[in-house]
Prior knowledge:
Layout: E1 3-7, H1 18-27, E2 32-35, H2 44-50, E3 56-67, E4 70-77, H3 84-95, H4 97-110, H5 117-124, H6 131-140, H7 171-180, E5 184-187, H8 201-209, E6 214-218, H9 224-237, E7 240-243, H10 263-272, E8 279-280
Parallel strand pairs: 1-2, 2-3, 5-6, 6-7
Antiparallel strand pairs: 3-4, 3-8, 4-5
Helix pairs in contact: 1-2, 5-6
Amino acid sequence: MRIDLHTHSTASDGTDTPAELVRNAAAAGLDVVALTDHDTTRGHAEAVAALPAGVTLVTGAELSCRVDGVSMHMLAYLFDPEEPALLAERELVRDDRVPRAQGMVARLNELGVPVTWEQVLRIAGEGSVGRPHVATALVELGVVPTVSDAFTPQWLADGGRAFVEKHETDPFEAIRLVKAAGGVTVFAHPGASKRGRTVPEATIAELAAAGLDGIEVDHMDHDPDTRARLRALAGDLGLLVTGSSDYHGSRKTCVLGEYTTDPEVYGEITRRATGAFPVPGTGGA
């Protein structure tokens, strides 16, 4: 089985629609794909309707969190999307994305970059607006060559010249909310130091004690040494180890199935989940 547990669609900051994403997952030879858009489940219904035979969809979301001043992302799988407390928290985070992105546009204007709010909205389309949309605007204007190059201290990285904070969930609260909604939690790309400060191992140990299920080890932003260190940490803490592409369509260079999750780990995730269940494809619409 080839299992990719971290992808994005136009419901947040990917460039594939949910339907295109699941069809592309089939073309890439994936057996299982998780749709984990930022702080939203809006793309799930379209993905389910288009799901090709032979591909199973894991529903999820990537939750924006912050601990001790460090931004981090929490992958949440197979939770009940209508559970009121978790739904309210996702909406709070999502609603704060608009004024945050407007603030980044204003800061870029102050720095002499002629980006406009209308440009960012056009790039975001119907998706939940976020930093990658602002980064894409910088690429369009020729300020930076790639989206990744916008995530530096010079521009949009945490603490960067054009960075603006938004509401982010305490990760201990995120674990509690996801568990209460029957879901499973995995810390996304915990060693991605190029994105900014990372969460220390002592805090990861505290998250594990609070019920964190796993950490994403095999990821494009982790070099071999980082993967080895995180794999050893997961073993010490009794955490599941996942691997994923973090696919964003054409917005990033990663491809579907670039990194994958062991079938036994996937099986354990599905065994722990009670809020929702993987959806087998029946041919799509």
